Task: inverse folding
């Protein structure tokens, strides 16, 4: 089984959202696997986690997503007992584990660095955690063979880690974490050290493996695409707090804060003024938006994703922006235009398909007409909340 899936073009985040239903898997049980209540962690005066509340169900694949320093890895390490919390509770399968040492918690963990033993064969690496459980030699060999087949590396039992590629080593690390049949699998940015195409292939393998085994999985990542394609639910974190919890579609289509809107995908933020519960003024033009609770005359941001802006012909839509194309970025599956809006001092990013670019004869300096569909126009406070 090769590590590289060759693809001609990388899809946009919007395309990834559109290709998948992004509802929790029907096999996900309603039984609670992990409950986190009021969890906080401080390092001196620095608050890494601030009153985290989270419930994870059996069989779920949950991603902690956020920028560096947001607290996602600290939360994972607290679950594992590697970074004890300052306050709060952690309950796994009805048993409180808040103050148990790591060896007494029921989890397997895979690190970014693989952490394989270089002096042990692949088979011995996978069997390492099983040796203290009193299994017979025959049972050990059977379990190792089962896992080697599961990760597609059967026949490599006698090799050493240095003889494998990075993607293969990460699969071995995954097999070792699963060897003891843990109730919870923790993945700490397991793909970030791999090149782009290997990551795409391996994330498909990890998700398929998780669905096959039904093991509850929590993965830390800063990669939006990984979270969107792998998770049943995404926990978006920033500055030690949870900004939003939801399915990939909920997080992408219905961000609850400007931070989520900007971090997951791309978003245009246009300065506007509220004129009704469902409309704002952008310059002298009124635009219908999703319903909001801001009072009239309040300065806000009208937010719309680049792929949601519609390229139209003159007079085709009631509310149009006249703009000029000042930059074209080729992104494989689509083009990203930067458009200078002539009626206001703003720039708008617009993602279009190649066929649309040909139809509208898009080139630098081209004058275009843009429509902002009401269903795609969100309203956020200008202070970023």
Result:
């Amino acid at each position: 089984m090769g590590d590289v899936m060759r693809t001609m073009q990388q899809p946009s985040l919007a395309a990834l959202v559109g290709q998948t239903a992004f509802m929790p898997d029907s096999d996900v049980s309603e039984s609670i696997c992990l409950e986190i209540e009021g969890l906080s962690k401080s390092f001196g005066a620095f608050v890494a986690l601030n009153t985290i509340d989270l419930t994870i169900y059996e069989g779920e694949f949950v991603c902690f997503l956020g920028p560096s320093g947001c607290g996602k890895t600290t939360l994972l390490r607290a679950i594992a007992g590697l970074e004890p919390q300052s306050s709060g509770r952690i309950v796994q399968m009805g048993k409180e584990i808040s103050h148990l040492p790591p060896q007494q918690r029921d989890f397997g963990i895979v690190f970014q660095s693989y952490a394989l033993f270089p002096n042990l064969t692949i088979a011995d690496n996978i069997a390492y955690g099983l040796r203290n459980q009193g299994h017979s030699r025959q049972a050990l060999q059977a379990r190792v063979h089962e896992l080697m087949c599961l990760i597609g590396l059967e026949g490599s039992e006698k090799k050493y880690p240095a003889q494998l590629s990075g993607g293969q080593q990460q699969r071995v690390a995954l097999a070792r974490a699963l060897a003891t049949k843990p109730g919870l699998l923790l993945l700490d940015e397991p793909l970030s050290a791999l090149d782009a195409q290997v990551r795409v292939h391996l994330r498909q393998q990890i998700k398929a493996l998780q669905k096959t085994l039904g093991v509850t999985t929590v993965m830390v990542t800063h990669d939006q695409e990984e979270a969107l394609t792998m998770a049943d639910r995404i926990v978006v974190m920033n500055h030690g707090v949870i900004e939003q919890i939801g399915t990939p579609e909920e997080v992408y289509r219905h961000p609850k804060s400007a931070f989520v809107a900007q971090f997951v995908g791309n978003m245009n933020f246009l300065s506007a003024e509220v004129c009704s519960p469902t409309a704002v003024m952008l310059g002298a033009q009124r635009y219908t938006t999703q319903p909001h609770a801001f009072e009239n005359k309040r300065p806000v941001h009208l937010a719309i994703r680049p792929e949601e802006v519609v390229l139209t012909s003159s007079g085709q839509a009631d509310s149009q922006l006249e703009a000029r194309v000042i930059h074209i970025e080729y992104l494989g599956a689509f083009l990203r235009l930067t458009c200078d809006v002539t009626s206001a001092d703003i720039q708008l990013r617009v993602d279009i398909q190649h066929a649309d670019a040909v139809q509208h004869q898009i080139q630098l300096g081209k004058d275009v007409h843009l429509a902002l569909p009401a269903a795609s126009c969100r309203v956020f406070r200008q202070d970023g909340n």
